[in-house]
UniProtKB/TrEMBL annotation:
PANTHER family linked to this entry: CUTINASE 4 (PTHR33630:SF9), CUTINASE RV1984C-RELATED-RELATED (PTHR33630)
Pfam families, alphabetized: Cutinase
Protein family according to the UniProt entry: Belongs to the cutinase family.
Entries under InterPro entries matching the protein: AB_hydrolase_fold, Cutinase/axe
Key word Mitochondrion present: no
UniProt entry keywords in alphabetical sequence: Disulfide bond, Hydrolase, Serine esterase
Gene Ontology MF, one: carboxylic ester hydrolase activity
Coiled-coil intervals: none
Protein name: Cutinase
Length: 325
């Protein structure tokens, strides 16, 4: 069950009150998620905090800036991926492996809700304690991926999932360069690519802003993360983003607590399921299967047959009257 948590406007409200009913597909996908949540290894929150504090004290080395500068190297550093209806991009937290990460069950629930419609990409970046360099690469890789896919697959919609350092990477990639801590020179998401972002779900975001309407959780709206971004940086994405933060997570609530348990609470507090359900409700209608289409064709033929000459007289008369009207 999703945990009870407060909104940034105050008061306690269960997450279901802020969620559109998702139907059978959501229920099946989240049932699978409940089995998977215990599989992910937890990262070290203290190491994450120490690495994040170095982001503002140690600037990115010039060679890293030059290597990933969009002006110096304008060609994309990624190749186009398959043109599935939905692309799910996960950006893991500091120290998490590519597999069995916190975001894995979230992505899996979305995939299982839409079999054969999704492609998942784990963002190729180090996710280590060298955040300045690694997150700069992550921002460049994500920006190029979004832009390349928008051009190669104009019908594809993108879902972005980020945890901890991964939330920083996604947020800075989407924000204007002057609002970034990492990747200020790695280019910008094009308007076309931004329009194709269907949903953004972040957990334990170090750049969290308590007053922003994108926040969800038990946090205080008066408290920000360790490295808060300028308020309003996510305004273009407000209607398609959830930025989850709990009160005792010192990464997204920098002054409330030093308890390390808060930053890993998302593994078992129900917010994985809540984030997955939110994304699933934003997906488009489920396409008809071949069998459903055939049944629809058969039903249409049956309806049409009622107007044939051998149909009962009252049916033919009703059809003729409807045709005249």
């Amino acid at each position: 069950m999703p945990s009870e948590h407060t909104s940034p406007r105050g008061g306690v409200a269960r997450s279901q009150r802020r969620r559109v009913p998702a139907g059978v597909a959501v229920g099946a996908a989240l049932a699978a998620l409940s089995v998977l949540v215990g599989c992910a290894p937890e990262p070290d929150p203290a190491a994450t905090r120490n690495a994040l504090t170095e982001v503002t004290s140690e600037p990115v080395a010039p060679d890293v800036v030059d290597e990933y500068s969009a002006s110096e190297h304008p060609d994309p550093i990624v190749e186009p991926l398959d043109c599935t209806p939905y692309l799910i991009v996960t950006a893991r937290g500091t120290g998490e492996p590519s597999r069995k990460q916190l975001l894995g069950p979230v992505a899996r629930a979305i995939e299982e809700a839409r079999p054969d419609e999704t492609l998942r990409l784990d963002l190729d970046y180090p996710a280590d304690t060298e955040i300045n360099a690694g997150a700069t690469l992550g921002a460049r890789t994500l920006i190029d991926t979004l832009n390349v896919q928008a051009e190669a697959c104009p019908e594809q919609r993108t879902i972005l999932l980020g945890y901890s350092q991964g939330a920083l990477v996604i947020g800075d990639a989407l924000a204007a360069p002057d609002a970034r801590l990492v990747g200020a020179a790695v280019g910008e998401v094009t308007e076309a690519a931004a329009e194709r972002v269907l949903a953004v779900v972040l957990y334990g975001n170090p750049r969290f802003v308590g007053a922003d309407p994108t926040g969800y959780g038990s946090f205080s709206p008066d408290v920000n993360g360790l490295l808060p971004r300028p308020p309003g940086s996510f305004t273009p994405y407000e209607g398609r983003m959830r930025d989850y933060c709990v009160a005792d997570d010192f990464i997204c609530q920098s002054t409330l607590s030093v308890e390390e348990a808060g930053h890993v609470a998302y593994y078992d507090n129900g917010m994985q399921a809540d984030g997955a359900a939110y994304v699933i409700t934003r997906l488009g209608p489920i396409p008809k299967t071949d069998a459903a289409e055939k049944r629809g064709d058969a039903e249409r033929r049956a309806d049409e047959s009622e107007t044939r000459d051998d149909a009962p007289a009252d049916v033919r008369e009703r059809a003729a009257a409807e045709g005249e009207s």
